[in-house]
């Protein structure tokens, strides 16, 4: 009887975290770096490259490649940057500082979002979806470092996960795009 009472009390005091039951990236939303709620459904019809970014990382120069990719394939791709401080505190800035850093140093014009957690107990719902095969259909890999990239198709299905070491303009990524401007990136 004591055990049963303990179980009931545990369930009441410590309810389980609600589980997402989403099948499409387009069912999600996030807050932009300017504080506006953005439904991912706004990006239907385009491929989406979701990247966890940081300003004090060895991979930070990838911002340049992400911007180039965004400009090159603007008709069929949107790049979404999600600042995160999950890896050795490499994104300590506040949203305004991050936005200014990206614009000033890399000319970033692709959408940036408010700083989030991409792993752990406080993992944002977008990264829950990206790293849970029961939600996205196949992938269980959370970002292992800054600048992990997740490619979503026009219908909101996860296509690929690329580690931080893959440059944004690598053919592993650009092979998915066909309508790019002529800027030296080859498919």
User: What is the C-alpha radius of gyration, as a whole number of Å?
Assistant: 18 Å
Give the rounded overall mean pLDDT. Answer: 90
CATH superfamily: Glutaredoxin
**Strand content range:** 15-25%
CATH class: Alpha Beta
List SSEs in N-to-C order: HEEEHEHHHEEH
Helical segment count = 6
The total count of strands amounts to 6
CATH topology: Glutaredoxin
Measure the end-to-end span. 67 Å
**Residues in helices, as a percent range:** 25-40%
Task: Label the structural class.
Answer: alpha+beta
The CATH architecture designation is: 3-Layer(aba) Sandwich
Which overall shape is indicated by the principal axes computed on the Cα atoms?
globular
Low-confidence stretches: 6-12, 14-18
């Amino acid at each position: 009887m004591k055990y049963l009472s303990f179980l009931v009390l545990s369930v009441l005091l410590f309810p389980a975290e609600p589980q997402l039951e989403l099948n499409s990236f387009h069912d999600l939303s996030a807050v932009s770096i300017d504080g506006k709620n953005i439904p991912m459904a706004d990006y239907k019809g385009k491929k989406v490259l979701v990247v966890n970014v940081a300003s004090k990382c060895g991979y930070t120069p990838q911002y340049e490649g992400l911007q180039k990719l965004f400009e090159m394939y603007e008709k069929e791709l949107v790049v979404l940057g999600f600042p995160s401080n999950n890896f050795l505190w490499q994104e300590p800035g506040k949203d305004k500082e991050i936005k200014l850093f990206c614009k000033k140093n890399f000319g970033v014009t692709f959408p940036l979002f408010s700083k989030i957690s991409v792993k752990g107990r406080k993992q944002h719902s977008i990264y829950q979806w990206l790293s849970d095969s029961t939600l996205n259909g196949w992938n269980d890999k959370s970002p292992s470092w800054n600048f992990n990239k997740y490619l979503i198709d026009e219908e909101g299905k996860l296509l690929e996960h690329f580690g931080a070491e893959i440059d944004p303009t690598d053919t592993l990524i650009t092979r998915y795009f066909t309508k790019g401007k002529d800027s030296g990136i080859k498919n």
